[in-house]
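Q: What residues go here?
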């Protein structure tokens, strides 16, 4: 059975997560090599438009999978529910994924 951990703070710090992003689960595969991290947006959080900064509505979310083959020496898979937002001024926008910033070794796989 995968083992859950209680305090994923070190992982969220390393991924650069801040409110409203949160880690909802971390599990480890039995062979000790693979880690699965699930990330979600805190429900009901208004998200700023990346274009104009105004709070925008969440239109829908899409589950994305990102992979990093040496994250704390684990083969890490990130499962993120990424919201798409609808800004009154700018229209449909994608929000920034903190773990996908320049220099990050996470790559989108699905
Ligand atoms: Zn906007």
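A:
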């Amino acid at each position: 059975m995968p083992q859950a951990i209680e305090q994923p703070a070190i992982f969220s710090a390393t991924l650069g997560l801040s409110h409203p992003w949160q880690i909802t689960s971390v599990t480890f595969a039995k062979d000790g090599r693979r880690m699965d991290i699930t990330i979600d947006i805190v429900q009901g959080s208004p998200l700023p438009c990346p274009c104009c900064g105004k709070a925008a509505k969440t239109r829908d979310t899409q589950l994305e999978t990102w992979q990093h083959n040496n994250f704390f020496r684990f083969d890490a898979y990130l499962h993120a529910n990424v919201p798409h937002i609808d800004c009154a001024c700018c229209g449909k926008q994608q929000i920034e994924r903190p773990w996908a910033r320049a220099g990050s070794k996470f790559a989108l796989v699905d």
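A: Context that may help when evaluating the design: The pocket of zinc ion is lined by residues 49, 51-52, 54, 87, 89-90 (CB under 6 Å). The chain has a mean pLDDT of 88.
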